[in-house]
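Hey team,

Sharing the Murein DD-endopeptidase MepM/ murein hydrolase activator NlpD run so nobody has to redo it. Sequence (264 residues) first:
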Amino acid sequence: MAFTRTATGKHRRPRKTGIRTGANIAGITTVASGVVAGIAGQAFAADAGPASQDTGLTQAIEIGDGIAEHIEAQAQSQETAAAQAAAKAKAEAVARQEAARKAEAAAKKAKAERDAKLRAAREAERRRLNTFVAPISGSYISTAYQASSGLWSSGTHTGIDFHASSGTPVHSVGSGEVVEAGWGGAYGNNVVIKMNDGTYTQYGHLSSIGVSVGQKVTPGQQIGLSGATGNVTGPHLHFEARTSADYGSDIDPVAYLRSHGVNV
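Structure output:
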């Protein structure tokens, strides 16, 4: 077989080598492209990264702001509710105080009115008990005090006679206590009362007696009925005023009654 030799130094590289070199160049190109791509990707990532991060931070801030606003609104609502509750409690307390003040004022007014009525009633009762009345209503004096006649053992009339038919109501002229109630000799059925001022009054010739010894009597209280018992010429009421319960201590009964406001 004949071989052809080329000139020294002019040998060509085998095609295989060339192919390898091309592959290397392609690889280099590919690597370069990858580097560029990588760099580009990094750049893109670098450009895109902050935007992505900013978006997340913004969302976080917005969420945080939303929560804070919700908490603040809730706190404000609670504060408003607390203020309203406090205002309501204060208003209720003021209302209770006002109601208590009004109730106390009403109670004081009612008490003052009751006390005034009680004082008025006591005063009226005091006046009533200290009031004197005539022993027989609507009557008149038929025989005067110290009139002379043989009908009386002393020779003079020791009291006054009030005109009255038998059975006419006879009243105590004032307040006092009965010290005698029964038969009195010439006085017939009689009642003697010790008055509250210490004087005595006598009611004689009664047809009936309506009180008993020790009984308290008041002005105008009925103590018996007029009659004609004892030393009399007809029915009437014999009335005496005395300084004691004993006979002979008589005083002017007209002056006595008039001094106590009784017009006779």
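The radius of gyration is 68 Å.

Ping me if you want the raw files.
A.
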